[in-house]
Input
Amino acid sequence: MEDYRLKNRDLEVEDFIEGILNGNRVMLAKAITLVESNNSKHFLKAQKIIEILLSQKKESIRIGITGIPGVGKSTFIDTFGCFLCNMGYRVAVLAIDPSSQVSKGSIMGDKTRMERLAKHPNSFIRPSPSGGNLGGVNRKTRETIILCEAAGYDVILVETMGVGQAEYVVREMVDFFLLLVITGAGDDLQRIKRGIMELPDLIVVHKADGENLEKAIMTMHEYNQMLRYITPYTLGWTPQAVNASSINEAGIDEIWTIINKFERYTKESNIFDKRRDEQKWNWLHDLIKQELSDRFYQHPQVKQQLEIYEENIIKGKKSVSASALELINLFLFDAK
Amino acid sequence: MEDYRLKNRDLEVEDFIEGILNGNRVMLAKAITLVESNNSKHFLKAQKIIEILLSQKKESIRIGITGIPGVGKSTFIDTFGCFLCNMGYRVAVLAIDPSSQVSKGSIMGDKTRMERLAKHPNSFIRPSPSGGNLGGVNRKTRETIILCEAAGYDVILVETMGVGQAEYVVREMVDFFLLLVITGAGDDLQRIKRGIMELPDLIVVHKADGENLEKAIMTMHEYNQMLRYITPYTLGWTPQAVNASSINEAGIDEIWTIINKFERYTKESNIFDKRRDEQKWNWLHDLIKQELSDRFYQHPQVKQQLEIYEENIIKGKKSVSASALELINLFLFDAK
Output
């Protein structure tokens, strides 16, 4: 804990800026909490901090990591993160916190999920609740990335669960997207989530060790076969499947080599910067649509009437177009 | 022309209802024009008509047909539609009108695109402009389907081009979705649009005739191979690829057999009705979001300020969250 007194007084924008730029982890964590707050006073302060930090141009690579439960995301990030930290990189992990997902009743916090990495002086781990349909990503994850970069972290790992639209949301905020998979029963490729294959820049067949190695190699070939039919997400970059093991650390360096190659290629072809600009643009328009829709659905009169309209639509008593317009008028004539 | 005098007086809601329920094609066409109109007086009248017609429960099957330009969509619909009409079905086609897409400068209208079908007494063809990013589908297509069904059409074919989000939009308004493909150069499967493979209930390898037949059979096998890896859109229904030729009408009856089997399966498993209810629900919420977003982007002050905000975001002068909220307040405080 760099300065325990920070807890006990009201922090100013300048305190945050100074702390973050000095790489103070407590300050970074507090700033993220501020950003995540729904309190409007906090929002304004958080936005000021971000706007000042935005002017700090720092180089970083943002890597999204996804995979269904059981593929070993935490073990992989633990190993991969330590590998990077040991090379001298500063690594921030925006991770899913399974303990906060009530229904699963998991008792592991992130400290134990990524035990080695959590202790490394070059790492910063920020857990997010895994509940909701965003699978650990939230609307403030992009702002959190900016804060971490300003604090000097040069590799940002964004973990997400293969739930709902989470992968698409994360794909839109990272430079490189990695899909973790494992071998399974013979026809396990069939259980891949719809659309997921079109997102990654790299597929890693995890747990390729011991008795599992042979099967992992076969699975890797199957994925490589399948990737032939997929339009790559990143123009001019052909995604491939590789094997890796977090236990014996096999394949970890190869993954980093591929990411470096990707970074070089996308920077030389200007895809890297163009994508980041487009992501900002999409972020703005997504946020506008999301906020408009939130305000609509939270509106008291809309809330009160919506169900009645829905019932009448299903019963064929009311047309969908007329219902939509009446509800929108209800909202707009009393929006403030 | 059933009654040319209809053109010359102002039609009342009752005239439309009576005409449509009697299967009067001119009235149906006029009602669709009313539905498609942006005039608010027309909108109200159209909604009244639809609300009255909604109470008429008519059995129908809605079939979406997609495929990139060159696969022979119009020839296929011409042949398939005639096949159905000759069996006694009444077939409505909501088709793309290539002649209205200015940039392509096509001179073929729908009458010539589907020459045989257009002349058949059991058919009704309604062209839509193919411009815009919806590839021939428009926001009023769902209402048009309702009108056609009320007029007694029991097979509704919705044609769409493989452009933008059109397939997803059409998938959300039909019971059965058919993807037309053709053979090409060896690696032509690679050129399939991202995500498209996960939508169809059936893939038809078209132009499987003459010298092309052998290649078409190979292509069919390749698609069937590939479909093994795809999570089917309709639970419990495994999509397959079949061959067809519109020239010698081979495979056309098989396609109809498959559609019948699909209809039986989805009705017995209650997927059919459940999907239609969900589609209505999704339609309402899509429409609300679309309308909110339209009103936002058409708002004069938003229009005036948006570019300035976007520039400042890219330059790093302004945060995305703050920009979104400021723009929304601009809109909501002056929404009417």
